[in-house]
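Case study 2.
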Amino acid sequence: MTALANTDLVETAVLATRPQPLGAFALPLGYMLVPASPDTEAARAALLAGEIPQWPQALRAHELALAGDREGALAALTGADPVSRYNRFVMNPDGDDAEDLRSVLGEFAVLVDVVLFAIGRSDVPPELGSATAELAALVLSTQASRAFNDGDTTTATALLDQAADEAARVSAPLSGVLLGAAASIAAQAGYPDAYRRYETALKALDGADGLRVARAELHLDLAGLLHEQAQSRPELLAAAVPHYHSALQLVLREEAPLLWASAHANLATAYLTMPMTEASGQLRLGIAAQSLRSALKVYTREDYPEQWASVQLNLANSLVYTPSKHQADNLVEAVELYEAVLEARDRDSDPMGRARVLANQGNVLAHLGAFDQAKAKLYEARFLFEELGDDDSVRTVRGVLDEIARQTTLTRAGEHDDGDH
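Prediction:
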């Protein structure tokens, strides 16, 4: 081994060149070593920068691992050298003796214990020892995972901060991934610095095109944090919207369908919640309806009934309140959407949800002049609200029923007058 002034860049000819692109990409690729070779140098540099490389034949297993083909990746790892053995171990921990593998991996031996902890074969994370840079970052992140599982969020975030600092010496994207994990824990724990942590993580990941899904997840999480805080500080809602848009710009529906659908659904909710104070408000309602229709391409009634019902309901509401030249058609579609939700919300499992949908649907039917249908829906809504003790909603429904009665009386009076003439 040749000792260099920068210990983070120590090179071992038979093993792997430091720094290694560990931890930033999803498993199993995120734990695999890139073997030392002139053929693999460009790919190693690209992975460190959070980019997908032009894969050389020597890294065929890595390419397959990223594509989710575990069996293919295993089949491509035919070498008997320590790096090939370790990479097979990442894919199949039962295929090699852990103790023997540690003995041949030199400075990378600690990765064996990182893997064993990550897959649940060990309850004890490895010690930091002499590990530096990306190796230290992985060790510290496993210790943070243990602290988080033990309910110690303060220690978990501190360890992830330390891990991010180590990672920042060699890979900004890895540092960003670790900072993002710390931000997520801080947000769940209600720490006031969660927003700053997300911003710092996203800045570190800027330009890491191979980690677009991870970046989109952080944008979505940050938007969700701002959206939640907007309940007490409404001005934050406008700050959430660009992050929903950023998430949607980063991923395609085919790449991350649930993330894509969630971003669309929550963007629409934000737009529907914003006050209608200017002409652009009408445009927002139209965009909201488009986003809700997009979300329903993923949130089907069969696979995601809860999300489907929520999005379906928001779409119906948006059609009711969006000004349009085709308002009558929108109201008819809204009635149908409400009806589909009613089929999924029975009186026993969600009486309040059912009552609200009935009240909305009855109101729309009244606007369409379908008074008999409207009254049937509103009577059931009123009964449920009375059972639940929601007096305000009872009064609202009675108001609509009174208006229907008044309109019916006026219509009859008009017909009577026409008959007299």
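Residues 391-420 form the longest helix (30 residues).
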